[in-house]
Amino acid sequence: MYSNILIPISKDSNMKVIVDFLNNFLSPDGRITLLYVITSDRLPISAMEWRRAMKIVSEAHVLSIERGLEINYLVKNAPSVVQGILKEAAEAKYDLIFFASSTYGKRRDSIFGSKIDEVVRRAAVETVVFRYIEEEPVKYGRILVPTSGYKNALRAVRMAEALAARSKGEITIMYVGPKKSDADKVLDPLLDDIKKKGVKAQKIFMKGSPADMVLEEAGKGYDLMMIGATERPYYYQFLLGSTADRLVREAPCPVLMVKTVG
Fold it and tell me: What residue intervals traverse the membrane (predicted)?
């Protein structure tokens, strides 16, 4: 659970998806801050920019009342959107930066969009990016979590556990590699821990290309896939790594990516 969440928003933000999703992770006394960054070094900002910001804030305000959530609103100017987000994240004690996007990355050097990718790379705060599918309801009945045991993927497992517990869903943790013994070392402790918390779960081991195997499994009716950002510096230029790049771009279901800290 998170107590202080920062959500950078834009004119394309789907506030209903964002608020409803984060309601699963917000602590009872937690708060959400919506940040709209206007790219300008000068004040006052233009009337057009102000109206655009207020339109998004108004929509979020209505949803916050309906959901009974405490939401704060910030409109700030900065030389760039990325600088504005990172500056706010550094000045306040947020425990999560959350992005939601329905955009499928088309360029090899940009997965969720260049601004989001850069914030994820540079932020010193845990960061989550949720790629949902526009005009499709977000469900959590069946959650797939591919993992190789690294900390970001393990954090994804914990978030999946929280979602499944609230929605009475089921988690499938998956390992792709050459040896079943390696899979058992990673998956068995996770499976035991998840089941102890009353969440239905199962494990899957497959041999072959990690991306191909995970995408094949994801096509079997999963509602959501949750993955960790890469922790290997060689792949960091691509944000997620070569395997996870394909998962974000090609998965038939929504994908949540998490990069933790510490």
Answer: none
For residues 228 and 150, give the distance between their C-alpha atoms in angstroms, rounded to a whole number. Answer: 8
Buried b (16+ CB within 10 A) or exposed e, 78-93: beebbebbbebbeeee
Q: How far is CA 169 from CA 22, 26, 166, 201, 251, in A?
A: 17, 19, 8, 9, 20
Question: Could you give the angle at which helices 242-250 and 210-218 cross, rounded to 10 degrees?
Answer: 20
Residue carrying structure tokens 């993927």: 153
CATH number for the domain whose boundaries are 142-254? 3.40.50.620
The residue behind tokens 């992005």 is 99
- DSSP percent split of the chain into helix, strand, coil, nearest 5: 40, 25, 30
Distance of CA 131 to the CA centre of its chain: 7
At 170 the pLDDT is 97
Closest by CA to 113, choosing from 123, 121, 103, is: 103
Query: Which of 96, 125, 89 is CA-nearest to residue 30?
Result: 96
Class of domain 2-131: alpha beta
Q: Which of 38, 34, 37 is nearest to 18 (CA)?
A: 34
| CB-facing half-sphere around the CA of 68: CA atoms within 13 A | 3
Q: pLDDT (tens digit, 9 = 90+) per residue, 38-70?
A: 887 666 667 777 787 778 778 777 877 887 777
